[in-house]
Structure formats: structure tokens, C-alpha cells
Amino acid sequence: MNGLLGVIGLACRAGRIKFGTEQSVLAVRSASKPTLVCISNDASFNTVKKLTDSCRTHGVEFAVMPISKYELGKCIGKTMDVSAIAVTDENFRKAIKKQMEKIDYCGDSDSAGGAIHGSNKD
Question: Is the confidence at residue 11, as pLDDT, over 70?
Fold first, then answer.
């Protein structure tokens, strides 16, 4: 888990993260789309639906992460809860995906939990 939080924190320090639901949706709709949208595991139903619908419509990968809003906010250096982040760098997307595989967090196939959904870029 620390590896996943570390990679997300590093991506933030490198300036390759947009954070917050609205910023993530705007990033997905923009011409320079993010490579992955990460959603906290305790985000509200409406937030998850808004983000996943937008990602599916625009062909962007998304994952419900095994971390809370508090943990997601803390790992990117914010003092507030953060429901979602948009990763704008392909190498950080791969690193996050690798860390998720390491902790073997795979949600069931009927939900968005854990597995990375959307277009397959590997």
C-alpha cells in the first residue's frame, strides 16, 4: 500500500496529477486527456458515476483505488479529502497499475472496485 501512495505522491510532486472530481472530469473532457483516473474507495455514488461515465464516454482508464479520500488527499499533500485524481503521465499510469497488482487489489467483475477499466494501453 505504501508503494501505491508513494507513486501517487511522486506523480503529484512531478506535476502530473489533477485532483478533485471537477478537475478530473475537466481533464477527461479536454484535448490532452489523462491516462488514468483514480477514484477513492469511499467516494459517493454520484461522484463515482459522474467520473466513470465521463471516462467511458471519452475512452480514459479509471480505477476505484483501495484507499480512502483522506489517504488520497494526504498522499498528494492536501489537508482535505480528495475523491479523485487524474494522472496525466503514461509512465505514472504504468507505475500505479504495477503497484495495484503488487497489493493484489482486484475488485469483483461486477463493480468498478480495484480493477483498472477502460481502454487497454499496455
Answer: yes
